[in-house]
Structure formats: C-alpha cells, structure tokens
Amino acid sequence: MQLEQFNQDFFDFLHNSPTPFHTVKNLADTFDKAGFTRLQENETWKVQAGNGFYCIRDNGTFLGIKLAAAPDHNPVWRMTGAHTDSPSLQIKPSPVRDSHSLTQLCVEVYGGPLLSTWFDRDLGIAGRVILSSEDDTLITRMIDFKKPVAIIPSLAIHLDRTANKEHTVEKQKHLFPLLCHSTESKHENSFNDILLQQVKTEYPDLVAKEILGFDLFCYDTHTPALIGVNKDFIAASRLDNLVSCFVSAQALLQSQTADNCLMLCSNHEEIGSSSMAGAQGNFLNTALERLMPDVSNRSKALHNSYLLSLDNAHAVHPNFPEKYDPQHFPLLNHGPVIKYNSNQRYATTSRSAALYKVLAKEVDVPIQEFVMNNDLACGSTIGPIAAKILGVQTVDIGVPSLAMHSIRETIGAKDSYMLYQTIAHFYSRPTLPQAED
Ligand code: CO
C-alpha cells in the first residue's frame, strides 16, 4: 500500500471511530472481510493453524490473532499492543440541566484532555447504549449522531481580560456543552427520547422498549486533514492512539510468517488500564491460556516472544524546546520513536530496542529515540503492564506527535506509514532475531 492511499484509509478509519466502541466495531468489520472468525469468550474455542480469529471484550477491546501453527507447538508469538480510547468528555447518567433558557449537557472528564481545546468546537455525541427488548433481553447498540449537536462557548475576552494569561478550566463549573433552547418537557425523558430517536434512525428494524444505560462521549466533528503548504502534517482528533490501532491492523492482515501473530487494542489506557477491558485486566492472559493450555509450553513460548507496544511519542515542539531533553529531540516526519524510561514507565530495554532497530533498518525506516526531560514526570502506556503480566520482551514505540491530548493533535504525514512499514516487517520477517540469555 502506498503512502497516499494509506493516509486516506486512515482518515476514513479515524472519522468513523469517534469512540472505542466504534473503533472495535470497525476493526471487527475489517477482520470479518479478511476471513477472520470471531471467538466468543463464553464459548469453547476451536482454533486451527492457518486461520485468523478475533475476540472482543466489553465492546471496547479487540484482540486479533493469526495462527500460523498450532499454538501449543509453536515457540514464538509476535505481538503488538495499542489503545482504543482517547481523552474525552463523557456524558453523565443524569445529563441535562436548564440554565438561562438553555439546555445544557452534564459531562465528566475522561482521562487527561487539554481542556482549553474543547471550547468553541462543533461537538458530536457517540458511544454505546443499552436497551431493553420486548422479551427483556439487553440489547447493545453503537450510536453516532455524525453531526454537531453541542458546543461549549468560551467566555468573551471582554469579560475576562486575563484569559490569554491564565488558562484555568474549572471542570465542574465551565464544562457544560449547550444542547438546545430549553423547553417545558422533562429533561431526563427528553434526553432518552433523543437517544431513542437516534437508535431508530440508525437501526430502523430494531424493536426496543427503553434505554437502560449508555456510555456516550462528546467528540469533534471536524474531519481529519492534511495540513501545511506541502501537506507535511496530519491534524485530527484521537491520533493518540488510533494511529497505532490502524497500523497494527493493516500490518497483521498482511502478515506472512511461520510464527503466530497477535494484536491487542485495549480500552481504558487513558484512565490507567485497570478495568475488565483494560490492559491490567485478564483478557490477554486468559486468551493466551486458552490458546496454550500447557503451562510449560506457554512459558517457553512467551520467553521467546516479543511485544511491540505502540503509542504516540512527543515530537519536539519548536516553540518549547526547553521542555525536552536536548540530546533527544524526536522530529516530525523522521520516523517512529523508541521511548525509554529508566523507571520503566516505558517497557523498552536495550534488548527489545535492539530488535526494533534491526526491523527498522531492514526496511530503511529512520530511528528516533526519546527520554523525558529529567525535571518532568514521564507518561506511561500499556507496554509495562503487558510486559509485567506476560513476562515478555517489550519495546515502546510510536509516531512523534504534537499537542498530545488536544482535541486536535498533529503528526507528520509520513510517520504513520513508516510505523506501518516496520510493523508489517515485524509480522512478516521469516524469523525474529533472538537475544542470548
Ligand atoms: Co496514548
């Protein structure tokens, strides 16, 4: 696949994935088309070598598996990990209030967004709703309004002359998106009525009694774009970390190796991964136990396996170079970044980094390296969690990005394609180099 086509497909994926639930649905559709079989956690798994499978947990976490050989006989797994969630504003259970003849939404802050960027945006609403059917089964459906239905207006500069000096956002006070003019009707019912109407629009044949719950998020309806006089940059929402979800899926679908391959895209990374769907949950581990029931074989396999943990890195911001370590300045469009942290906030070791360097060099992809400025706290990702749970060699890598956790982030137009080249090579190299013990 060439760069332009790759970016166009990536834009479509991004635009159609406003929430983790939509991301997973889109991944599942892609894997269905490629002939993969869905495995259900509440059924016995019947897997044969030479086939592809996938499994979903709680609608927001996706595990893709390509079995080249019977899993209990094959010594090596090639794995990637990424996350499906992004910082956002999540709609509260009782979500509507009236103020000054305006109806407003009540939201919670999900993860760590740059809140100042959420003002004056054309916000859509999307996510998962749970409905009851006529016979009282619980129905799950994804909905996406696909149009701006809310906005959080800033306070005018004339009413706050300090606005350009101080960016304080009070979360409980300042974050109420406008939904509509107030009406006389009861709000709880009217919000559920709005949701039911949206369900009917998207699923005209569905017979449902009432809405019993929802996980809904606001998102920016602005489409992804190539930016710059030479189209050097990509600006979009949720680049952290849908770049890595898209890249790993594209690479796994083309894998050609005698080893077994796996990709995990986990929900809840932005809130610490500690949930049934998150990387600290037991999803990946129980899946591997079901694929390799023999403890000794599983230990042998994981000892020889590698995990590439994919999550965006910080490119140097030209307006703030003092925030970075001067020996480690990742640049946009100069290739994926290996992330190091001596306190293992990133799982990279010299051994796992060496594997990645071999892969990148073989496909002529440049290598960049990042460590955090010693005076700043280092972020983390699912790499160290997976390394701890599985006991597997792990390297943390990702595309360099600017404005991480803004509602609209920026990356280089070439970096995700270069990441794809290295991951595709990881999934296709005849054998992986093994490090001495
Ligand atoms: Co991330």
Characterise this structure.
By secondary structure, this protein is α/β, with parallel strands linked by helices. It has two domains: 3-86 and 237-428, Aminopeptidase (3-Layer(aba) Sandwich); 88-220, Aminopeptidase i, Domain 2 (Roll). The protein is built from ten helices and 20 strands. The strands form three sheets. It has a nine-stranded mixed β-sheet, sandwiched between helices. Strands 8-7-10-5-6-9 form a six-stranded antiparallel β-sheet, with helices on both faces. Strands 11-12-20-19-15 form a five-stranded mixed β-sheet, with no helix packed on it. Helix 5 (239-253) runs parallel beside helix 10 (415-426) and helix 8 (350-362) crosses helix 10. The protein is globular, with a radius of gyration of 22 Å. The mean pLDDT is 95. Bound molecules: cobalt (II) ion (CO). Cobalt (II) ion binds at residues 83, 240-241, 311-312, 381.
Q: Describe the biggest sheet? A: 9 strands, mixed
Query: How much helix, percentage-wise, in residues?
Result: 25-40%
CATH topology of the largest domain, anyone?
Answer: Aminopeptidase
Strand content: 25-35%
Q: For the terminal residues, how far apart are their CA atoms?
A: 38 Å
Radius of gyration over C-alpha positions, nearest whole angstrom: 22 Å
CATH homologous group name of the largest domain = Zn peptidases
Number of strands: 20
Query: Structural class, judged by helices and strands?
Result: alpha/beta
Number of helices: 10
Compute the average pLDDT: 95
Bound small molecules, which ones? cobalt (II) ion
Shape descriptor: globular
Number of domains: 2
- Written as H for each helix and E for each strand, in order along the chain, the element string is HHEEEEEEEEHEHEEEHEHHEEEHEHEEEH
The CATH architecture assignment of the largest domain turns out to be 3-Layer(aba) Sandwich
